[in-house]
UniProtKB/TrEMBL annotation:
GO biological process, one term: protein N-linked glycosylation via asparagine
Keywords: Endoplasmic reticulum, Membrane, Signal, Transmembrane, Transmembrane helix
Segments crossing the lipid bilayer: 193-212, 224-244, 276-297, 304-320
Subunit structure: Component of the oligosaccharyltransferase (OST) complex.
GO cellular component, one term: oligosaccharyltransferase complex
Its job: Subunit of the oligosaccharyl transferase (OST) complex that catalyzes the initial transfer of a defined glycan (Glc(3)Man(9)GlcNAc(2) in eukaryotes) from the lipid carrier dolichol-pyrophosphate to an asparagine residue within an Asn-X-Ser/Thr consensus motif in nascent polypeptide chains, the first step in protein N-glycosylation. N-glycosylation occurs cotranslationally and the complex associates with the Sec61 complex at the channel-forming translocon complex that mediates protein translocation across the endoplasmic reticulum (ER). All subunits are required for a maximal enzyme activity.
Subcellular location, record wording: Endoplasmic reticulum membrane
Main location: endoplasmic reticulum
Protein name as it appears in the record: Dolichyl-diphosphooligosaccharide--protein glycosyltransferase subunit 3B
Top-level lineage group: Eukaryota
Family: Belongs to the OST3/OST6 family.
Amino acid sequence: MAVSRKPLLLLVLFVIAFTTTSFAESDSDSDLVADLLSLQSRSKSGVIHLDDHSIRRFLSSAKPPRSYSLLIFFDAVQLHEKSELHLQDLRSEFTLLASSFIANNRDSPSSSKLFFCDLEFKESQSSFGQFGVNSLPHIRLVGGDVKNLKDSDQMDQGDFSRLAESMSDFVESKTKLTVGPIQRPPMFSKKQIGVFLAVLAIWIPFVIKKVIAGETLLHDSKVWLGGAVFVYFFSVSGAMHNIIRKMPMFLADRNDPSKLIFFYQGSGMQLGAEGFAVGFLYTIVGLLLAFVTHVLVRVRNVTVQRVIMVFALLVSFWAVKQVVYLDNWKTGYGIHAFWPSSWN
């Protein structure tokens, strides 16, 4: 009997150990989810700040399949000054995506399926290496079945095009979860709107009095003239392009950081200083044309008219020549004069 009980006892111990291990692993995953939810609740933005230790705990040591996924934004504080990377703008859109997902899925099981995190380069250089990140901006989705961190899904540059909205499409396509509408904060708070309406109510009677008396800026022709010149300059200088693309005024030379680049060679990019230079040249030609057609025609002295006319033509020719030269330098396309065949 003693011999027959020993294998039975070993079998019971094995079953107990296996069951205990399974429960421990299950509890471990639930504990990790609980910790992630706790970290998320303590974050004002809903984005969990990770480091090398957190990556080991929530990803490397937590063997798949995991019940949760992590969307990680890779950041580097020292690169925030490089406006062409738009790191801070993308970071704010990432935060907006996180807060919208949390708000839209507050009472849903999906709230514990996806967490938004960030990694800072100086604090987590080892983790950057594990993911194989060597350039920014960079966002990765680590699914619950991912074993090797380098095999996680990287968000392409095209997924940044519509900012938080395109990031939401990426998340929904990869995780099959619903992010919901992006909840952008209003441009003005209720208090600001209330103050504005109060000031407007006080100001309206004085404005009506000025309008009736004809003493407003809208009755001043000089204001309209200045506004017309500004709109003309704004349109020909490409200022709207610079504002939309958030182009810098100049760039530092990569070969010599002490030098600045104001004109960029290439048709796909225009710096702010370059746009202002072109706008200034166009505005000179426009103002000279307006002066000749509206002011010079009233001068009775023919000699003065001719001298000013020649001067205006020479300056306009020089300005147009500079614009053509710049366009040829940037694009490689030239403008060539020719005589009509009928003149030969």
